[in-house]
Design brief:
Elements: E1 3-7, E2 10-12, E3 18-25, E4 33-39, E5 46-51, E6 58-59, E7 68-73, E8 78-83, E9 92-102, E10 105-110, E11 114-118
Parallel strand pairs: 2-11
Antiparallel strand pairs: 1-3, 3-8, 4-5, 4-9, 5-6, 7-8, 9-10, 9-11
């Protein structure tokens, strides 16, 4: 079992920055790939950043590439999402997700989400 708790959301003006954190507990954090998703009202959940278990590979969709950076500190069991040059369309609930494949079985856990609102 993995428990995930997001923090760092809030209200920010367009062009501003926020850093989200997701603290994990309960299992071996360093064995999980970590992903940030977001979901805006009336829209499907969207992947915004992912990072491998060792942190060696990251991935972003074009909508956030160059503005968002995912990182992890396995010693603190925490993953971060640095969001710069925020736009109103970045407004959403942001969710932290942990995934691990082990012997053909997927283990997956979600945080409760943190609201990010980009508005003047």
């Amino acid at each position: 079992q993995v428990q995930l708790v997001e923090s760092g959301g809030g209200l920010v003006q367009p062009g501003g920055s926020l850093r989200l954190s997701c603290a994990a507990s309960g299992s071996t954090f360093s064995s999980y790939a970590m992903i940030w998703y977001r979901q805006a009202p009336g829209k499907e959940r969207e992947l915004v950043a992912s990072i491998t278990a060792t942190g060696g590979i990251t991935n972003y969709p074009d909508s956030v590439k160059g503005r968002f950076t995912i990182s992890r500190d396995n010693s603190k069991s925490t993953v971060y999402l640095q969001m710069n040059s925020l736009k109103p369309e970045d407004t959403a609930v942001y969710y932290c997700n942990a995934k691990r494949w082990n012997l053909g079985v997927l283990s997956e856990y979600w945080g409760q989400g943190t609201q990010v609102t980009v508005s003047s």
